[in-house]
Design brief:
Shape: globular
Biased composition (Basic and acidic residues): 264-321
Largest sheet: 7 strands, antiparallel
Radius of gyration: 20 Å
Order of helices and strands: EEEEHEEEEEEEEHEEEHHHHEE
CATH class of the domain at 12-196: Mainly Beta
CATH superfamily of the domain at 12-196: Alpha-ketoglutarate-dependent dioxygenase AlkB-like
Distance between the termini: 54 Å
Region (Disordered): 195-329
CATH topology of the domain at 12-196: Jelly Rolls
Bound molecules: 2-oxoglutaric acid, fe (ii) ion
Domain Fe2OG dioxygenase: 77-174
Family: Belongs to the alkB family.
Number of strands: 17
Strand order of the largest sheet: 1-2-5-14-7-12-15
GO molecular function: demethylase activity; mRNA binding
Structural class: alpha+beta
Helix content: 10-25%
Length: 391
């Protein structure tokens, strides 16, 4: 019924699933990547002799949005992507993304929420199960930006997922590693970031920007806090794709995904402590520490949640109440102006976050600890959570 052409042979891979925790279906656009030397003798990395299918139109829309909204910088415009399709029980084992791809890069999550683990010494604890220093929830529709230590020092993995999940990882190839026949897509050249309006008043704390950490941000570009909608207590059905976010054109037409970070005081307290991944007990735990986050910069945006975040996060993602910690979006499809205001508001936050993060890419500390840290934030700019990686 459609005119979708078949995918070329290497673009689509479906590993043999002989046991839980083995593999996931992947579709690669822009380039194909070898995790190990293949049968034809191609070394690990981008296969330079292979012409893969081009990035589909819809994904290009997402890429443009990632750059326009300053989620990715203009020198990291993705020219490749990998779609990971996880069936229940599928996982991605601990890895550091290849340096054939430049940093930062990002992953957008769909269908169901799961956790991603970050740590310098993630260990295999069983089929599809890993222990790690820190788990970061990936709500549906969220964007996880990986950079700095989060990209190069910490490994990451997605333990066996409880329910079907799809992620799209957008990455720019190192120009020296691109396939020989690769040609830039003119549509992805010269994407102009939206101009950021002046930042609102902020309770920026004194240590802001001094700490040298970073690497990971989760954002939910589809979420807008809307008091009226929130107060109606509507919920987002679990598993609903957040089309309104990075995919949406204007304010999304339906409730959006949960935010992965903190908002209320109570929640701030709760995330200010190390959260043990729900996956098997971590031997790294004792060595981990998480700083108490700063005051939120945008207290007026702080939404209220009906559920303690600690409670929420202590449950496996599939058991988390979908209606808790959910932000609702403007439903007014009629209101173009409102849409623009929202985009501007979003942009203020994104821009702020990006700028801060650009200041703090390298290993270091602002306390006695010498451990590199990963930082986590959401679009709502609630406090960055700093996580010592624990080694
Ligand atoms: O599925 C995810 O969220 C992570 C994917 C990932 O790590 C990768 O594609 O390198
Ligand atoms: Fe990865």
């Amino acid at each position: 019924t459609t005119n979708i052409p078949p995918l070329s042979d290497r673009t689509y891979t479906e590993p043999e699933k002989w046991m839980r925790g083995k593999g996931r279906v992947t579709i690669q656009f822009g380039c194909c990547y070898n995790y190990a030397t293949d049968r034809k003798g191609n070394p690990p990395g981008i296969i330079r002799t292979f012409v893969s299918d081009p990035i589909p139109e819809l994904f290009k829309v997402m890429i443009k949005r990632l750059v326009r909204w300053r989620i990715l910088p203009t020198d990291c415009v993705p020219d490749s992507c990998i779609v990971n399709m996880y069936d229940p029980g599928d996982c991605i084992p601990p890895h550091i993304d290849s340096h054939d791809f430049v940093r930062p890069f990002c992953t957008v999550s769909f269908l169901s929420e799961c956790d991603i683990l970050f740590g310098s010494s993630l260990k295999i604890a069983g089929p599809g199960e890993f222990t790690g220093s820190f788990a970061i929830p990936l709500p549906v529709g969220s964007v996880l930006v990986i950079n700095g230590n989060g990209a190069d020092v910490a490994k990451h993995c997605v333990p066996a997922v409880p329910s079907k999940r799809i992620s799209i990882t957008f990455r720019k190839m190192d120009p020296a590693k691109r396939p020989f026949s690769f040609k830039d897509d003119p549509e992805l050249l010269n994407i102009t970031p939206l101009e950021a309006p002046a930042a609102p008043e902020t309770s920026r704390s004194s240590d802001e920007g001094k700490g040298k950490q970073l690497g990971v941000q989760t954002r939910d570009p589809g979420s807008r806090s809307s008091r009226s909608r929130k107060s109606k207590g509507r919920t987002t059905p679990a598993g609903k794709v957040g089309w309104g976010g990075i995919l949406g054109d204007q304010p999304p037409q339906h409730p959006q995904s949960p935010i992965s970070s903190v908002s209320s005081d109570r929640e701030r307290d709760s995330i200010g402590r190390s959260r043990e991944p729900r996956y098997p007990p971590s031997s790294d735990r004792e060595r981990d520490s998480v700083e108490r986050p700063r005051e939120p910069r945008y207290p007026r945006d702080a939404p209220s949640h009906g559920e303690d975040l600690r409670d929420r996060l202590n449950r496996p993602p599939h058991e988390r109440t979908p209606g808790s910690g959910v932000f609702f979006v403007n439903n007014g499809a009629d209101s173009q102006a409102r849409g623009q205001r929202m985009e501007h508001r979003q942009l203020q936050m994104i821009n702020r976050t990006i700028n801060d993060d650009m200041d703090s890419l390298s290993v270091g500390s602002h306390e006695s600890s010498e451990q590199p840290r990963v930082s986590v934030r959401t679009i709502h700019n609630r406090p960055r959570t700093r996580i010592n990686l624990g080694w």
